[in-house]
């Protein structure tokens, strides 16, 4: 701000006392305080308007950026970044074409695999194998717990 120390303030006070006089000095200081308060209020208001203009400017920039992104085809841009010469796309298309020509690799078991991959169907959802495979708890074999309970 003004960078006044105690010595400078004392000199200003003595000069004000000599120029204005002791009788009117409180009125002058009160008036100076009111003017300083008004100046601070005006400066605060001006700073608020400047901040609003900056905020609106930032919002306009942000709005322009969003509109730019909306106008771009992000899928095409991403595809160009990953596969700039198109070789991966050509290879995948060739693999897909060959897979459609040869058909499914294994019988689909009547579930309608549609040639989209190999479907192994053993007639059960059990990951251990088909239901008719012999196992320790298959039907027709005695349960080990029942022997221990007898």
What is the percentage of strand-forming residues? under 5%
Q: In whole angstroms, how far apart are the ends? A: 100 Å
H/E element string?
HHHHH
Q: Provide the gyration radius in Å.
A: 44 Å
The largest sheet, given as strand count, sense and whether it forms a barrel, is: none
What is the subunit organization of this protein? single chain
Task: Tally the helices.
Answer: 5
What structural class results from the helix and strand content?
Answer: mainly alpha
Helical proportion, percent range: 55-70%
Query: What are the low-pLDDT stretches, counting only 5+ consecutive residues below 50?
Result: none
Protein described:
The chain has five helices and no strands. The protein has helices at residues 6-20, 25-71, 74-82, 87-102, 144-149. The protein is mainly alpha-helical and 150 residues long. The termini are far apart. The model has no long low-confidence stretch (mean pLDDT 76). The chain has a domain at 7-73. Residues 126-135 have a biased composition (Low complexity). The chain crosses the membrane at residues 6-22.
